[in-house]
Amino acid sequence: MKTIKIAILGLFLLIANATQAQVSLNINIGTTPDWGPAGYTNTEYYYLPDIQSYYDVRASQFIYFGGGTWVRSNRLPAHYRNYDLYNGYKVVLNDYHGRTPYVHYDKHKVRYHKGYYGAPQTCYKPRYENKHFGYNNKHHQKNNNHNYDRHENNSRHDRHYKHDRHN
């Protein structure tokens, strides 16, 4: 009888520990990037009109068209590596909740054309400011040229997408 009680207690503790581990794992997924617009903590996607790309907040990945298909990557492609995510406008897509926001790309491209600027936005966290070097200084750019890379890849993958091999 004592052995059965110990076994039940052990099973209960094992299940409780597994449940707690699952909860703590999910807390860190989907955090707003530093350059994301403030005030939108529950959004899933941003559309970036200037580079006609998307950002998946939950997966911390950019989604862009390249090589004839939509690509998911934790980095922007080489031709957009100098794009300033802090100053570029981000359209918050609150009306879409799936895995493929680009199914509405034709609508987004027309409605939010390159150069589109809607209501003023403030970034979630201010950009690091070095008092000795301005934002446009070559030294500052050299050390901070990966502003788009502030989120770590959380290894979510989707088999329908070509993934960047540089991740």
List the topology elements:
Layout: H1 2-27, E1 45-48, E2 53-56, E3 61-66, E4 69-73, E5 91-93, H2 105-111, H3 138-143, E6 162-163
Parallel strand pairs: 4-6
Antiparallel strand pairs: 1-2, 1-5, 2-3, 3-4
Describe the protein's architecture and organization.
The protein is α+β, with helices and mostly antiparallel strands and 167 residues long. The protein has helices spanning 2-27, 105-111, 138-143; strands at residues 45-48, 53-56, 61-66, 69-73, 91-93, 162-163. It has a six-stranded mixed beta sheet with strand order 5-1-2-3-4-6, with no helix packed on it. Strand 3 and strand 4 (69-73) form a beta hairpin. Residues 19-28 and 130-167 have low confidence and may be disordered.
Order of helices and strands: HEEEEEHHE
Characterize the biggest β-sheet: 6 strands, mixed
Query: Uncertain runs with pLDDT below 50, 5 residues or more?
Result: 19-28, 130-167
Structural class: alpha+beta
Query: Based on CA inertia axes, which overall geometry fits?
Result: elongated
Query: Into which percent range does the helicity of residues fall?
Result: 10-25%
